[in-house]
Specification:
Structural class of chain A: alpha/beta
Number of domains of chain B: 1
Radius of gyration of chain A: 21 Å
CATH architecture of the largest domain in chain A: 3-Layer(aba) Sandwich
Shape of chain B: globular
Order of helices and strands of chain A: HEHEHEHEHEHEHEHHEHEHEEEEHHH
Largest sheet of chain A: 5 strands, parallel
Helix content of chain B: 10-25%
CATH topology of chain B: SH3 type barrels
Largest sheet of chain B: 5 strands, antiparallel
Helix content of chain A: 25-40%
CATH architecture of chain B: Roll
CATH superfamily of the largest domain in chain A: HypD, alpha/beta domain 2
Oligomer: heterodimer
Strand order of the largest sheet of chain B: 3-2-1-4-5
Strand order of the largest sheet of chain A: 2-1-7-8-9
CATH class of chain B: Mainly Beta
Number of strands of chain A: 13
CATH topology of the largest domain in chain A: Rossmann fold
Shape of chain A: globular
Distance between the termini of chain B: 19 Å
């Protein structure tokens, strides 16, 4: 395992790894899904799979908001950006995500006014400073990020800033988990619950997974010890035939969530009846839409939106990788046509995408080994 | 994007109650406190920041560990780029 000596309590890390080996029933194959892309990244970065017994399989979940956005929505946002007076503002993560006619960066190179912001508040600030332009903030993210967009819209409305709108692609994590559990392709035993989404929504929203589906859930931090401890807690429950929600990330995640954040979201957003997710298809009540009271700041009300549905390139298996049905390396395009340098799908672009994580840590390592073996031969 | 950046509140902004100044590894920026209205932090408190908004209060010890974690994840540079980018148009000079 990499970097283990660099963290606090390295002895506890070893203890947790030993405990996992002790608890894992050799007659059983465990399938544990980590929902959050940040956890996927940490698992690969720290080489956590190397310390787990071979009968524990970690399955990567769809918790990467860039990855789950269908290409058509990027095309829609960029269609609005074609208007000369529009400034398209988005997080850096979005800039290299492929649309049908290029990524936002590629559109920028062709003259579209595309700007990186690190906060929705900064998109609003661009609007304040450019009264003759219209700033459209292309909002993505789960519940970790949606409250900040909500607050920004509240500020825009209270200040009467009219040259600002949000193209809202916020999605919610629980319906995605539900869709995965309902999918016949998937058999899962337990979940490592999201870290930072849970600081907003708390732990209660996962209780139905334990109660109705009988699967344990442990919300986890991002350090190696956090993830290993979470797996220990899950294995303990599985051994005891229990299924409940536990919070390993107590230092950051409050059980009841963040009330001010939930209030802001409820004020500004409502649930869309359904929304299309890459890989998971249409999921009901899984995405946020701006309420009518804020229609003046909703890009989908201010501008005509083409609304074209675009399917991924036929050969790309983004959907199956997102669902956890395929591992990144099992996609036919992985490492050949699709690499971080020239991505076909968003999973190779985003730091939270499982393809990028696998490529950067495992694939490069394996390729280096092949190179060194063949140079010796 | 799951990036949660630890910072220390150094100043509140008198004319704008929802804003404060945080310091992250020596860089000072304005951050929004709107999500912590029910438990407003004061100068000296540490918070976790996500896209320019303080999400939760944390201990100083956990803040230091979080910064360490970000560098172990190879995300420290990205975190500092984000912090430096707050409050600047175009996300900071030379970003393209």
């Amino acid at each position: 395992m990499r970097y283990v000596d660099e963290f606090r309590d390295p002895e506890l890390i070893t203890k947790a790894a030993d405990e996992i080996h002790r608890l894992a029933d050799t007659g059983r194959h465990y399938r544990i899904m980590e929902v959050c892309g940040g956890h996927t990244h940490a698992i690969y970065r720290f080489g956590l799979k190397d310390v787990l017994p071979s009968n524990i399989e970690l399955i990567h979940g769809p918790g990467c908001p860039v990855c789950v956005l269908p290409m058509g929505r990027i095309d829609d946002g960029l269609a609005v950006a074609k208007n000369a007076e529009v400034i398209f503002a988005a997080f850096g993560d979005m800039m290299r995500v492929p649309g049908t006619h290029g990524s936002p960066f590629e559109h920028k190179a062709r003259g579209t006014d595309v700007r990186i912001v690190y906060s929705p508040a900064d998109a609003l600030q661009i609007a304040r400073k450019n009264p003759d332009k219209h700033v459209m903030f292309f909002a993505i993210g789960f519940e970790t990020t949606a409250p900040s967009t909500a607050l920004t819209l509240m500020r825009a409305r209270s200040e009467g800033i009219r040259n600002f709108s949000v193209f809202c692609n916020h999605v919610t994590i629980v319906p995605a988990i539900r869709a995965i559990l309902d999918s016949p392709d998937m058999r899962l035993d337990a979940f490592i619950g999201p870290g930072h989404v849970s600081t907003v929504i708390g732990c209660r929203p996962y209780e139905w997974i334990a109660r109705n589906e009988g699967k344990p859930v442990v919300t986890s931090g991002f350090e190696p010890l956090d993830l290993l401890q979470s797996i220990v807690m899950l294995l303990r429950q599985l051994r005891a035939g229990e299924a409940k929600v536990e919070n390993q990330y107590k230092r950051v995640v409050p059980w009841e969530g963040n009330r001010a954040a939930l209030k802001a979201m409820a004020e500004v957003f409502q649930l869309r009846p359904y929304f299309e997710w890459r890989g998971l298809g249409f999921i009901s009540q899984s995405a946020l839409k701006i309420r009518d009271e804020y229609a003046g700041w909703d890009a989908e009300q201010r501008f005509p939106i083409p609304g074209t549905r675009v399917t991924d390139p036929k050969a790309a298996q983004c959907g199956e990788v997102l669902k956890g049905v395929l591992k990144p390396a099992q996609c036919k395009l992985f490492g050949n046509e699709c690499t971080p340098e020239h991505p076909i799908g968003a999973l190779m672009v985003s730091s939270e995408g499982s393809c990028a994580a696998y490529y950067n840590y495992e694939h490069r390592k394996a390729a280096a080994m092949v190179t060194s073996i063949s140079s010796v031969a | 994007m799951c990036l949660a950046i630890p910072g220390k509140i150094v100043d509140l902004v008198p004319e704008q109650a929802h804003l404060c100044t945080v310091e992250v590894a020596g860089v000072r920026r304005r951050v929004d406190l709107g999500l912590l209205q029910e438990d407003i932090p004061v100068p000296g408190d540490w918070v976790l920041i996500h896209v320019g908004f303080a999400m939760t209060k944390i201990s100083e010890q956990d803040a230091l560990e979080q910064m360490h974690l970000l560098s172990m994840l190879g995300e420290a540079e990205q975190a500092m780029q984000e912090i430096r980018g707050y409050g600047l148009e175009d996300g900071g000079a030379g970003v393209s």
